[in-house]
Amino acid sequence: TSSTEDTKTDTGSGDLITVGFSQVGAESDWRTANTESMKSTFSEENGYELIFDDAQQKQENQIAAIRNFIQQEVDYIVLAPVTETGWDTVLQEAKDAGVPVIIVDRMVNVSDDSLYTAWVGSNFELEGKKAAAWLYAYLQAAGKGEEPVNIVDIQGTIGASAQIGRTAGLEAAVSEHSNWTLLAKVSGEFTQAKGQEVMESLLKQYGDQIDVVYCENDNEAFGAIDAIEAAGYKVGADGDMIVMSFDSTNAGLTETLNGKIICNTECNPLHGPRVQEIIQTLEKGETVNKQEYVDEGIFSFDGAVSVISVDGAEYPVTKVTKEVIESR
Ligand code: GYE
Question: Do you know which SUPFAM superfamilies this protein is assigned to (predicted)?
Fold first, then answer.
C-alpha cells in the first residue's frame, strides 16, 4: 500500500493552497532529488499545504491517491505518472470534481487532453537521440566507426515515457547504422538492484560480445558496473565494454568523471519551481502552456566529442570535471 503523509491537518490553514502530489516512488537518485524539489517548493512557508503520496512504483496506488486527493478537496493535483496509459478514468473523476491536474516528469497518454491542465518534463526521445548521436561521434573519433558494435539496452520501467523515449532514440540509431546490433533489451526498472541483476544475466548470455551497455538511468548503470566488474571485465574507454547512462545525478557524474560511465545524458529533476509557476499563473486566472520541455545537456568523461547533432540541431557536450559536478 502507499503511504500518505498528511503534512498538515490543522484547519487554520485557510489561505494555504492545498496540493496533492502523487509521486511514482523512490526508485532512483533522480526521484529523490525530484521529491526534494517538490517538498521544498510546496512548503507552508511558501504558502502551500502539501499532501505527498509515494506510490511505490504502482499505478493502482497512484489512482487511489488521486481519489483520496479529490475527496479531500485539494486545490490542485500534481501527478508524476509511473506509466503513460491507464489514466482516463481517474483523471475524468478529477475533472468532474473541478480539480485541476498538473502532470510532471513522465507524460500521460489520454484520449482527451482536457483531462489535464498542463504538463512539464523532459523530451525523453531527444535524450535518447542525443545519447546515440554521442555514441556515433565517439566511435568515429576513436577510429572505430566502421567496426561492429554490439549493444545491450537496460531499459527503464516499461511504459514510462522516460523508457519509451530513451529506447526509441537508441533503436532509431541502431536501424540507421548497419554495423550496430541491439543484442537485447531488458527492463532494469530504473533501480540499481534490478540493473545489476539484469546485467548479470546479460553477461551470462553474451559475455564479452557486449561492447556497449546503454542504461536508461544512473542507478541501473551503478548496478550494471558492479555486475560487469564482478564478472571480471573492465569498464571504460580502455576496457572491455563501455557504459552509457541518463540523469546526470551527482553520483552519476562522479562515475562519469572516473570514466566508468562514459557518457551521461542529463535529465533535470528540479520541477518544483516549474510546477509552482504553473499554479501561480492559474491562481491569477491566466492560461498556461499545455506542454513545456526542460532544457538539458549531455556530459562525457573526456572531451573527445565536443558537439553532437540531432535532427539538424547541434548540442554541446560538456566534459565532466570536479568543478562541473560541484557547480550543480
Ligand atoms: O530518469 C529515472 C527515474 O521519469 C525522468 O525516472 C524520470 C526517470 C529518471 O527513476 O532515474
Answer: Periplasmic binding protein-like I
What is the C-alpha to C-alpha distance for residues 101 and 82, in angstroms, rounded to an integer?
15
The model carries a pTM of 0.95
Residue 243's SS3 state is strand
CATH class of 3-121+269-293: alpha beta
Q: Are 8 and 15 in contact (CB under 8 A)?
A: no
Q: What residue ranges do the domains of the chain occupy?
A: 3-121+269-293, 124-267+297-326
Residues 246 and 267: their CA atoms lie apart, in Å, by: 7
Topology match between the domains 3-121+269-293 and 124-267+297-326: yes
Ligand 1, pocket-test mutation among 214, 217, 219, 244, most atoms within 8 A of CB = 217
Pocket test for ligand 1, best of 35, 120, 166, 190 (most atoms within 8 A of CB): 190
Of 72, 75, 169, nearest to 124 by C-alpha is 169
CATH number of the 124-267+297-326 domain? 3.40.50.2300
Complex ipTM: 0.99
Give, for all 328 residues of the chain, the pLDDT tens digit.
455 555 444 444 569 999 999 999 999 999 999 999 999 999 999 999 999 999 999 999 999 999 999 999 999 999 999 999 999 999 999 999 999 999 999 999 999 999 999 999 999 999 999 999 999 999 999 999 999 999 999 999 999 999 999 999 999 999 999 999 999 999 999 999 999 999 999 999 999 999 999 999 999 999 999 999 999 999 999 999 999 999 999 999 999 999 999 999 999 999 999 999 999 999 999 999 999 999 999 999 998 999 999 999 999 999 999 999 999 8
The residues lining ligand 1, judged by C-beta closer than 6 Å to any ligand atom, are 27-28, 30-31, 105-106, 122, 160, 162, 190, 217, 246-247, 267
